[in-house]
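User: Before I run my own analysis I want an independent prediction to cross-check against. Here's the chain; please return only the structure tokens and, at the end, one sentence I can use as a sanity check.
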Amino acid sequence: MPDIKHGIEIIRKNVQIAPQKSGVYRMIDKNNKVLYVGKAKNIKKRITNYTHFNRLPDHIKRMVSEVERMEFIIVENEAKALLMENDLIKKLEPKYNILLKDDKTFPHLMIDTQADFPALRKSRGSHKDKSKYFGPFASATAVNNVMDIIQKTFLLRSCRDSVFNNRERPCMLYQIKRCSAPCVGKISKETYHKTVNEVIDFLEGKNTDLKTQWSEQMQQASENMNYELAIVLRDKIKALSSIQSGYNVEYAEIISADAIAVAKHKGMVCIQVFFIRSGQNCGNLPYFPKQAENMDEEEILEGFLSTFYAEHEAPKEILISHNIENKDFLEEAIGAKINMYKKGNKAKLIERAQENAQASIERKLAETTAVEANLIEMQKYFNLPKIPQRIEVYDNSHNQGSYAVGAMIVATPDGFDKKSYRTFNIKYTDNTNDDFAMMKEVLIRRFERMSIENRPDIILLDGGLGQLHAVHEALIDYDLSGITIIAISKGPDRNAGKEFYHIKGQESFSLPYQSAIAFYMQNIRDEAHRFAIGTHRKKRAKSMFKSQIDEIEGIGSKRKKDLLNFFGSVEQIKGASLSDLMKVEGISKKIAEKIYKYFHI
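Assistant: Structure tokens:
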């Protein structure tokens, strides 16, 4: 271990000049690399803790021994400190911070309360408009389940505005009692808005007496011989009863909370997050942070809360499995209460999250073991100098030469690294029916930008000997040391599992039929094929839309978006009358005439 006394002395000198304000501090080593980024309500008090040698865990002692200097940034409050800490950790990836791979955008339910007849929709991304948002939900399945419940019970519309504005008769959802058909006046605006408010109360957990209210209204409707309304209310009561009977009583008292638990096992760490909203379980997700193996559960949990809630909106309460040191600071920064419970339903919920975290580790270990076993087999069969850590798989996709793209996926011992996937729009190849020329271009462009950090051990090509020779010829001026290039071609009768593998200087061969390593090689090849085709289809769809709309003079991105939102598709725009086109906000008579003439003359 480097000189711990020197590190402590550096920190003591910085304590003397450190501000007694909220902010972020950085610890930096002699090579000018950031070791750690931390936040504090009072920076001076926080860094003083690092000078108490005997109280420090071993990994913090190692960090302190490497410190050569420190830097401080003062911010207005705890929330700004949290955001700045998160930004710096993402940018610098310090070796002593927990690194959380979290690029998820969670789905929400959205109600546009400004509309005449608000729709219930799914939403991802930022929430900058005046609509009401509910969530988050851990998956599309979870949000679909709740949406299904609300459609059955409250009959809110879910269609696009363009469809709603152009309907002349009710759709199928009205026939199966999933919508009240406001599009054709089957429900008044006043009654519909009352229903919208009931949905909002339901999603926010504010109204627990809906069944009682509906029962009274049903009775009144019956007495007034308004049997149609009474039947509607009866069906709503039945739907709500079925929902409530399916509630887990453990969640019933929880209006808005995330339950977060940490588990450690065999050098692996998992953090499990449960989302509970309005007494409903909106799903759960596991996270596997990096650089957390040597930390205790309290430190891991605190680091996770900082990173996670700098990116995601916090609920009213966060339930945690372990106590954390800077609880007060985080509550201020996040804007939520953070609590531990020893008994009651909230304690049971945390216990369940803990069990799921442990189970997630077991599954991850099993998956990792299987991948590691396949990589060991790969080293043996392909005569590799070491177990591969980075495998890049390449494929091309085009439609008779049109919309040509190249694709690269990356496989590692941890599985597919989707953040490292890349696409290449074919720019320099004249004949895009020539797969060899396309692959040459893709590989040359990849090698021109290759760094030491992302240098692959294996390059796997979807193609035979011709593809292999073409790529070696294209890369003759590049350093291929330590990189094995493998081409994979279809076997007899294009039979999956009987593929041939080709390496320069070796005889072509097949892997044992239906062996684990054969399935693994097929899997990574198929992932590249899937990614290439998906990219090609997106490019083709974008080009088709652009060719039909963007060539019209006076149509920019905003008008194009407004047209599509109003009509729903390009086909609907093509078939629209002049008067219908003028109904779109921002489309004048002159512009409408240009659009109409473009498609009809």
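Sanity check: Residues 108-245 form one domain.
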